[in-house]
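This entry is set out below.
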Amino acid sequence: MNSPSPEPAARRLFLALWPDATTRDALAALAQRVAGAAATPAANLHLTLVFFGTTPAAREAAYRSVLAGLSAPALDLTLDRLGWWARSRTLFAAPSQPPAALETLLAALLARLVPCGFTPENRPFRPHVTLARRKAADAATDAALPPLAWRTERIVLAESVSGPAGSRYLPRAAWPVDGTR
């Protein structure tokens, strides 16, 4: 008889804004249009807020604990810019004007996480949704997009699981955002 698999000692984790089905489908259609076969799978589309990297189980438990009482307002994002980072060969959609509430949310998250031992990245936060990786750049990059409106509904703690077909991002916990603020 097989027993359930034990929980891993560590997971590769990140916090993200996870799109609702309508937004995910619109992002997936955009990714297909601009990247074709290289497009990010629809189930993996998200906007990373905090990247934890490989996280021991005890640290993950601490993060979950401090995030349990999280209260955040809903955010209205408009993804209206297509961009390209040559170094990482990443094609992405981003807001040309990130809302101030997004920076406020990030600061609130870090205020909870840093006392648990999290060390923030030492680079500016550049909100984006990765549409494709390892794709060759073409003339369609770094251009305006028809605006794609996204009202955020939840913040997700996700795990990146590597496999033969590439990485899969699996939601492990979620906290709703308050759409009434």
User: Anything to note?
Assistant: Residues 71 and 177 are 7 Å apart (CA to CA).
